[in-house]
Automatic annotation (TrEMBL):
One term of GO molecular function: lyase activity
Designated name of the protein: Lactoylglutathione lyase
Keywords recorded for this protein, A-Z: Lyase
Domain VOC: 3-127
InterPro entries membership: Glyas_Bleomycin-R_OHBP_Dase, Glyoxy/Ble-like_N, VOC_core
Superkingdom of origin organism: Bacteria
SUPFAM superfamilies per UniProt: Glyoxalase/Bleomycin resistance protein/Dihydroxybiphenyl dioxygenase (SSF54593)
Signal sequence, renumbered to the chain: none
Length: 139
């Protein structure tokens, strides 16, 4: 089995959250979806588990932060620069918030931040490693 990541997120409205994630390019895995949780697939190795607040509380007693707070920013890469704008537009049209942070355009790297309906922060990004200025490359 390959190494995988499952990001677990508490959501206030499971159906609305599923619609949001579908709109920005995730697919639903019905084998791990019921009335309390939905598995949304970004890639073969990256899955987002949307959990109702009641389901979330079966895993932890820690409080669910308000939608105005930010604990992490999850960055996902896109194949084309234009896809960053497409995803951000879809987020805004589907109950999320676009450009919650300043747009970053470094030429070789372009990113825009968005929040889902529950305030979880995502960064849609595109990068062309071949275009990184030689002084900026690690090593």
């Amino acid at each position: 089995m390959p190494r995988m990541i499952f990001v677990n997120l508490p959501v206030g409205n499971l159906d609305a959250s599923m619609d949001f994630y579908k709109a920005i390019g995730f697919e639903n895995n019905p084998h791990f979806t019921d009335e309390t949780a939905a598995c949304m697939v970004w890639s073969e190795t990256i899955h987002v588990m949307l959990l109702t607040h009641a389901k979330w509380r079966t895993f932890t007693n820690r409080p669910i932060p308000p939608t105005s707070s930010s604990e992490v920013m999850l960055a996902i890469s896109l194949i084309e620069r234009d896809a960053v704008d497409t995803m951000t537009g879809a987020a805004a049209a589907s109950g999320g918030t676009a450009d919650i942070n300043p747009v970053q355009d470094l030429g070789f790297l372009y990113s825009r931040s968005l929040a889902d309906p529950d305030g979880h922060v995502w960064e849609a990004m595109w990068m062309d490693p071949a275009a990184i200025p030689s002084g900026d490359q690690p090593g």
